[in-house]
Design goal:
Structural class: mainly beta
Radius of gyration: 18 Å
Strand order of the largest sheet: 5-4-9-10-1-2-3-6
Largest sheet: 8 strands, antiparallel
Distance between the termini: 52 Å
Order of helices and strands: HEEEEEEEEEE
Strand content: 35-45%
Number of strands: 10
Number of helices: 1
Length: about 170
């Protein structure tokens, strides 16, 4: 009986990886629409391999949308231009399919279902917070912050500077 219990424990824990740090967000912020309506929350977590952005939102338009980290932590509606350009500490071109790219803030495309719901986690590889406690990569969460921006259309992953992803329709301060 003891042998079966040990085997059951071994099987149930296979593939489990212990967390390196508590699951406590560095930042929690509202995701807002261009009309100022709160669509949900965005949380930023420090991980051993970078920063994870977790989005939990309702009320987004269904379909594919480009998503980027922008360089300034401001979300002034209605156009969110206050968020600045894409976060690009490596001074590259835009898009994962661009031979001269990609920006560190290029996070690809997200699919929003017909009900407008989005729940997703995105890794920003190598990024870190400003205090230096999480590695030596580029600082995302610095003095002027950063913003997560969801665009109206899909990102084509190659056209500089924004992948033809259209208007900024939702924004959260990181």
């Amino acid at each position: 009986m003891l042998r079966k219990s040990i085997l059951a424990i071994a099987i149930s824990t296979a593939g489990c990886v212990p967390m390196a740090a508590p699951d406590v967000p560095v930042v929690t912020s509202n995701l807002v629409s261009s009309s100022g309506a709160v669509l949900g929350t965005v949380r930023l977590f420090s991980e051993p391999t970078g920063l994870t952005i977790r989005i939990d939102a309702r009320g987004l338009p269904p379909g594919m949308h480009g998503v980027h980290v922008h360089s300034v932590g401001r979300c002034d509606a209605p156009d969110f231009k206050s968020a600045g350009s894409h976060w690009n500490p490596t001074t590259r071109q835009h898009g994962h399919q661009n031979p001269a790219g990609f920006h560190s803030g290029d996070l690809g495309n997200l699919g929003v279902g017909p009900e407008g719901r989005l729940v997703v986690g995105l890794l920003v590889p190598g990024a870190r917070v400003a205090d230096g406690s999480d590695g030596d990569g580029p600082v995302l969460h610095d003095a002027d912050g950063a913003a997560l921006v969801i665009h109206a259309r899909p990102d084509d992953e190659k056209t500089d500077p924004s992948g033809n992803s259209g208007d900024r329709i939702a924004c959260a301060i990181l």
